[in-house]
Each structure stands twice: as C-alpha cells, then as structure tokens.
Amino acid sequence: MMINTGRASLAVLLALSPLSAAANVRVAPVTAGAVRPVVMPVGSAAASMRLAPLTLSAPDLGGSLRASLVGAPAFTGSPLAAAPSAISAPAPRTAGVAADAPRAGVVAPAEARFQANPALSGVAEEAAAYAADEAPAVAGVAAAPAAPRSLLGRLMGALTGNRSQVGDLFDASRGKGGLSNTGLMPQRPASLPNGSRLDDEPSAPSAEEVPGVRFQTWGIEGERRSGVTFESRRELAADPSSESSVETALRGLIDAEGSRYGVRSADLQTVHVRRFTGHAGQADTFFALFRQVKDGLVVHGTDLAFVIKVLDGKPILVSQDATLFPELDVNTQQVLTDEQIMERIAQRTGATPADLARLEFVEQKIVYSRGRWHAVKLYMADGLPFMIAVNVADGTVFAWDNRTGLEKAEPAAATTAVLKGKAVDAGPILKDSKITEVPLPYLSVKLPNGKTVVTDKNGRFTADASMGLDLSQEVVLTAELAGPYAKIEDQQGKTPSISIRLIPGQEVTVVVNPDSTLSDERLLADINAFHKVNMSLGFLRERKLTTAAMDNYQIPVRTNINDECNAYYTPGRPTLNFFRSSKNCVNSAYDTVAEHENGHYWDDKTGGIKNGGLSEGWGDILSMFRLNNPVIGEHFLKVARGGVDYIRHGENDYQYNQYDEVHDQGQAWGGFAWRLRKMLIAKLGYEQGAAVAEALVLPTMFAKARTIPDAMAQVLVNAMSNEGTILHEKEIRAAAKAHGVTLPAAPGRITQLVRWTLRSLGLE
Predict the structure, then answer these.
(1) pLDDT tens per residue across span 306-326
(2) Element (H, E) at 594
(3) What's the pLDDT score for residue 28?
(4) pLDDT above 50 for 64
(5) pLDDT confidence bin for 106, thresholds 50/70/90
(6) Beta-carbon count within 10 A of 442 CB
(7) 3-class secondary-structure state, position 678
(8) Can you tell me the distance from the alpha carbon of 189 to that of 263, in angstroms, rounded to the nearest whole number?
(9) Which residues of 478-498 are buried (b: 16+ CB within 10 A; e: fewer)?
(10) Is 732 helix (H, G, I), strand (E, B) or coil?
(11) What are 514's strand-pairing partners?
(12) 65-100 in b/e burial notation, b at 16+ Cβ within 10 A?
C-alpha cells in the first residue's frame, strides 16, 4: 500500500482469486454531531470468497480489479458474501466481436525487493521490533489451507492487530500447480531485504484515537441515514458561473463558521473547484475539495468536500463532508540531514548503498501512524513494491506495500502523416483474435531541429515550414511509443521505435509493425497498451474530467512483465503495469483491463483513492462506458472456471454490503451505473441516453463520496434540474434498489410545489 497525493491508496491488483485480507468491516463509533464509520481490514486466508473477487485493500484506500467470476461455484466458510446469482450472457460488443464472447480476469505482481545486504543483517532496534512474525513464503510452495474463521473471529483478529488473522491475500485453497481454484496465481508478498515485516499503511486516525471534526450533511429533504445529517440548503454569495468566485465564497463560509469547521481557510489547500455544465435540463454542479495543511505540509487523510448546485440561477450548497483535525500536534521541523535519513532507512530495511541510490524523493507530508502524527519524507524506487517514510524530526522509519488505465487545421504546403500499429483492438491476444490497424494517438514525434509534434487521437500530425522543416525534399522523423500522457516501457525488450519518412505534398501512413502476427505477442501488447491507455485518457479529457496533474504527467505503461495473471496500478509515482501471457492467462495488456487500471489512476489523481469499493467500481465504469461493453477482463482465463473466463460483469445482481470485500462492493457501483445507462438508453435513445448517463455518473468522481450508497445519492443530486426537481429519478432509484441500496427520500415534484408556494407567499 502507499500514500498518494492526499489520501492513502492501495495496490491495484487485477485478479480473479478470492482475497481475504481485503474484506472491509465498518464499525461506526458515535461522535459529536454525526457518525463517521471507522474502517478496519479484516480477513483470513481461509475466508470464503466467491469464485472471483480479487483484492488488496484497506479502508478508504485504493483499489484493484478483482474478479467476480459470476456463475462459478461459491467457496464455503465465512458469511461475508453470498454466492452471486447467475448473470445473463454478455451483450454484443462493437464490430468484430461475437455477441457471445465473454471476457476474463487478472492477479498480482511478482515479489520485488531491494537487493539483500548480509552486512546489514544486524539491524537497529526498531527493525527488530518489526521482525517478521510469520513464516516467509517459499517460492513455488503453496500455503496450507487455514481453517475457516467466523466473521467475529476475523473482526477480533483485526481489532487486536494480529496480522496473522488477516492472512494471505488470496484464498488458501489451491489447485494444481499452486493456482487457486479460480485459476489465478497467489499474490507474492513483499518484504524488506532484512526480512522484517512491512508496516501497516498510514491512515486517518479514528475518533477514539484523535478528536477531530467529522461530519457529513446533505441538503436534500428526506429520511435520516446512519452517519448522515440533513440540513437546509444554503445559498452562496457567489457568481454561479465562476469557479474562483465559488471558492472565495466557500473560504468565506469556513472562516465565518470557525466553530463548525475548526480550521481557518488558510489551513486548507485547494485540491479542486470544478464546475460541470448540466446536460439535458440537469442543473450545473460545482464540486469543491480542500485538504488540511500545517506548516505548508498536507495532512494525510483529511478533506473538506462541498457540492453546489446552480438552482434558479443561484449557487446552492447541497452537501458537505469533513474530516479535519484542528488540534494537530506534530513537530514539522526537519532535524535530520538527508544523509542521516538514508542511514536510518538502511538500518530499518537492510538496504545497501546501491539500493539507497535508487530511492527517489516523492513528497513531504504529515501522516498518522503508530498512534501519533509524523511529518515525513516519502521515498520509493522504480519497480519496488513498497514506499518508505521517514520522520524528519526523530528518524522513525515506516515501510508499507505500495502496489495497488491536438488536432489543428492543415496549413498550406504541409505534409501529413498518420501513424498506426497492428493490434488486437477488442479483447485479448488469442489464437483466433482479429488483428487490425489502430491509430497511435498522442504520440510525440521528434523533428530534425529538436522540436516535437504530437499526433491527434487519430494518430495524425501535420508538418509544415513553420516548424523549420524543408519540405522540398524527403524528411525522416523518429519516434518511440511515448507521448505527453503515456510512455510504453516494455519489460521483455526494447521499447519499439518508429521511423517516419515524410514525402513532399503527400499524406503518408506509417504502420509500426506491418508484419505482426498473433505469435508476436510482445509487440502487439505494446501497441495495445499505448492505444488503449491514450484513448481512455483522451475520453476523460474530452469530457473535462481530468486534472492538471493528469494532463501534465507522462505515466509509464509497463508491458510484458515477467509474471502472470494480473495487472495493477501504483499510486505515488503512478505506473500502469501489464503481465505477459502464460499457460493460465492471456497477456493483460488489452482494452477492458487497461480501462479498469486507468480508472484507478483517474480516481487517484482527482483527490486520492478514498474508498476501495468505489475505486473498483470506477475502474469498471470507465471500461463499460467507454467501450459500451459490460464485461471486464473478457477471456482472461485460458481455461474457463465454472463456465466463466472473465473477471466481472456489469449486469450483475450483487446486493451491496458494507462488510464485503472491496471488489464485491465494487459490483454494486459498477452495476448501478451500467443498469442506469441501459435504462436511460431505453428511455432516450442510444446517443442521448449514454450522454445523460455520463453526465450523471462520471462527474461524481469529483465529489469523492465516502461510500457507494453516498455516491449513488450524489447521482440524485447531480440529476437536479434548474427548478430543483430530480430528473430521471425513477431510473436512478431503481438502479440503486437493484443492488440493495434505498436512496434517501427526495422531494421530487413536491419540492417544486413547495418552492412555488413559498415564492407566491414572498417567503423565498
């Protein structure tokens, strides 16, 4: 696990195996004014999970793509989740894919660690205190199945801090060759080079540990739910068309009501204030998110979120969500030198000087761990599955698992080139897959004079004399599979390079791998990954759903990793990672898998992964909405299990349970969104229905809801019209109800009548 920019997030594992350690159990302590659930990881190696969900999760943290192999037999044991009901066959895909072609799932990365240093085997006292209390895993040897534990037993194990009760990430039952019964390889645990165990990931303290300001309120009339307070809507003194004006008004509100928030606006860093224009009668919405700072350092686990609707031309505050710590006691002054910090890291981890040279500084922030606040510097090294934090005042060292998807007009006398590559556009690389030519979007091409031009989403770019090129003769340009938003880093060989010959007065088409066949897996996977990740990011940018952090970051996309049955995203220093094929699974660099992992990246970069179940659902939603396909991980398993070879399906009937593992919970959010989209398409037609679904669901990312039911309720808020009524209310409620969630009673047309009456009486 790791800390991302502002929130804790976890490894993004794309897998089908049932995970136990990821089960989330929420205990709701009573606090002044409201209830804030405290989430604690619970699980055991023998906990029964359905034939699918994969997980590596912690409360309010990031996520991974874990499978729900619908239709397969259920494991017996823990009552955390019932076996899913059978699901209808996948809907037809776009052109080139059979209607009955389901798709499949994905597992965790191989163990990566520092090179061990025998000379440092005698570590400091702190390292000894964190010595491994479990026998290390032996490569190629499956762990013996553990006896099933009850929910109470698992709860007590987690609450007492006994990590052995959390167990392996996957169900302990193994098939032949070390595979789990779902056909996936078990996650190999990460460890430090001196053999000491990793720390738990830092997280926001509970109400019992540290007093703070925690509340959640909604300005929608209706029934009270646990942990939610309803209050009157409030009008802001702001320009309803201006993000900066709304931010100024919110900061004024915070300063005016200091007793409620406990902090000044000067103690808050703006993460975003984003305005989204309403679609088809939907009122405009502002999402504002702030994070607490002290002495210039972000306080991890804090946030203050507002949602503002523009109703009758007025900016109305309709919801607030706060986790703040006004009485923050922490020494932020750096006492240790950077050299001393490296010495402490070596003592704690057993790292060699060569290992230390690989470490890169990520950021400095304030975190809560081991019962107190720490001002820390965070470090990580490329390819290592853990992050290191060092208290800059006293040198305490922590380490935790960090593994958690340009068009311009053509000028005169110009030469145009279209760059393409052969790939499998839909689904994974299989013996009977169809190879097609796909564009290479947003790819950087180097000009002879040192300048760079970027292709558009169709792989096209134009060169002219204004670039300093002499187009009276042939010009040779070069490029790699890299651009401003993504770069392929092939783990099995050199990243492909491209040579482009521009012919004066002609449009040229360059195919990077014209002779590729289905046996050329490595290069096909490279092209697949570059195309899919860039198209996914472009889909979000076109809808103004990205952030400056995403638009200005070139994410490394690692392909053909020498491991099997998984894909994952790493927060902190973001990377997307895809595995080569094996006898068990396909190469994971393909459309739905790439979309899902990119969904975790999107979640991380819009304020941090706040809820593991939501993040899993977001990955599925991005895939389903962009590809118009409810199947995630189609044909991932080479040998179907229980008649299923894919990871999850959007057309599921999973009933939401806050105690279920995050991948199970994610089915509720993903299934809700897909069901709502289908109902709106049936009601409005394909184009209008799909557009309305996007406008209602996708901007909810910026609300950073605390739970899946809260996110569904936020869709109701998003659906408010300019008159205050809720558009498509019947469909939204029905989609939530299908997954066991009853949304708060909303005013609907009653609000319209009440507001009309108040206006008539001169009371509004």
Answers:
(1) 999 999 999 999 999 999 999
(2) helix 591-605
(3) 31
(4) no
(5) very low
(6) 23
(7) helix
(8) 41
(9) ebbbbbbbbbbbbbeeeebeb
(10) helix
(11) none
(12) bbbbbbbbebbebbebbeebeebeebbebeeebeee
- Return the pLDDT at 370: 86
3-state secondary structure of 446: strand
- Predicted confidence (pLDDT) per residue in 241-269, tens digit: 999 999 999 999 999 999 999 999 999 99
Neighbours of 200 (CB within 10 A): 17
Give the whole-angstrom CA distance, residue 577 versus residue 532: 13
The DSSP-derived string for 49-75 is --SS------TT-----B---TTSPPP
How many whole angstroms separate alpha carbon 485 and alpha carbon 533?
A: 9
* Cα of 720 vs its chain's centroid, Å: 27
Rounded to an integer, what distance in angstroms lies between the CA atom of residue 114 and that of residue 191?
9
Give 452's strand partners: 446
Phi, psi of 291 (to 5 degrees): -130, 140
- Report pTM: 0.70
d(C-alpha 210, C-alpha 195), whole Å:
32
| Res 33 pLDDT > 50 | no
Residue 293: DSSP 8-state: E
SS in 3 state form for 316-380?
Answer: EEEEEEEEECCCCCCCCCCCCCHHHHHHHHHHHHCCCHHHHHHCEEEEEEEEEECCEEEEEEEEE
Nearest CA-CA partner of 182 in 14, 432, 61: 14
Reduced to 3 states (helix: H, G, I; strand: E, B; else coil), residue 502 is strand
Give the up-direction half-sphere exposure of residue 590: CA atoms within 13 A in the CB hemisphere. Answer: 32
